[in-house]
Amino acid sequence: MGIVVVEICDGNIITDIDIEKIIEEEFPEVAVIESSCLSFCGMCAKRPYAIVNGKRIFAKTVDECLIKIRKQIQSELAIFS
Question: Which InterPro entries match (predicted)?
């Protein structure tokens, strides 16, 4: 398990990309956990999002969301450096 955890809902459009592979290859200290539901049904249906160490990250597009996820991961990792 990583020191940073990224949670994604398997019903969210962020899963259109292989986010687990992308993030875990780029950041080996990060664990991506895909759940069947994260209890944000309204958000899940409307826009891509993820939860990074308990913080909701969302955007209008998958690419924008991935950029924001990376920035949040870097901020979280900076705490442990």
Answer: DUF1450
Q: What is the pLDDT of residues 4-44, one digit of tens each?
A: 999 998 888 888 899 999 999 999 999 999 887 766 666 66
- Give me 65's structure tokens: 């969301």
Q: If you count DSSP H runs as helices and E runs as strands, how many of each does the chain have, helices first?
A: 3, 4
List the structure tokens of 54. 């308990």
Its pTM stands at: 0.88
Whole-number Å distance between alpha carbons of 44 and 58 = 10
H or E stretch at 16: none
Q: Which two tokens stand for residue 24?
A: 């875990």
Q: For residue 26, what are its two tokens?
A: 């780029």
The total of structural domains in the chain comes to 1
